[in-house]
Structures are given as structure tokens and as C-alpha cells.
Specification:
Layout lengths: L7 E4 L3 E5 L2 H17 L2 E6 L12 E2 L8 E4 L3 E6 L1 H5 L7 E6 L3 H5 L2
Antiparallel strand pairs: 1-2, 3-7, 4-5, 5-6, 6-7
């Protein structure tokens, strides 16, 4: 759904904005497609194990999320998908994708 402030999100048990705008959502989809093509490894982590990921040395990718976020490291990207877990009060829905083995093109594109 689109919220009154233009945020893109889901309405489940409550309104949960995932991205500040439709454009942010599209950027997130494009980044996932790009990272998936360029990564040497993709690791999917689910449930409470997501919270144990260490983000030391990572910087947030501000263009792509509010509740669902992306982080850029030295040679990897991490996508955190928290929206459904928050909106549904369902921690089992937490998910992260770690895209590893990226070069500069994989991390930043053109």
C-alpha cells in the first residue's frame, strides 16, 4: 500500500512502512537483482538468527529502505527484510540475504 506520506508498505496487524516511496521499493528490487547476479554466494538467514548478524564495518544504503534495509560492506551486501515480522508480530518472518564475494561493480554498480 501507499501511505499518506507516500511511503510504500504493508498493512497487516498494523501499518508498516517498508520504503519511503515507491521509488525506494523499486531501488531495493533493482539492488537485489543486481547483487544476485554479481554475488559469488547468497546466504539466506531466517528467524531470530537475523538479529545476530554483525554490521560492524557496514554502511547503510539509505536509498532503499525504512523497515526493510540494505547494508554495504567491503565485499558484501546484506538485505534485511523486517516488514512482515513487524507488521504481523511474527519474528519467524525475519529474513536476511547476504550477497558475498562482490567486487566494486557488484557493490555499487555504474
Amino acid at each position: 500500500m501507499i501511505g499518506p506520506d507516500g511511503a510504500f508498505g504493508i498493512t497487516a496487524n498494523r501499518w508498516t512502512p517498508l520504503h519511503a516511496s515507491m521509488g525506494g521499493w523499486v531501488e531495493s528490487l533493482a539492488l537485489a537483482a543486481h547483487a544476485g547476479r554479481c554475488a559469488k554466494t547468497v546466504t539466506k538467514i531466517t528467524g531470530r538468527a537475523v538479529e545476530s548478524l554483525d554490521l560492524v564495518g557496514y554502511e547503510r544504503v539509505p536509498e532503499v529502505g525504512l523497515t526493510d534495509t540494505w547494508w554495504r560492506g567491503r565485499d558484501s551486501l546484506i538485505a534485511f527484510y523486517r516488514g512482515e515480522a513487524i507488521g504481523l508480530d511474527a519474528p519467524q518472518c525475519l529474513e536476511a540475504h547476504v550477497y558475498g564475494g562482490l567486487d566494486d561493480w557488484g557493490l555499487r554498480g555504474g
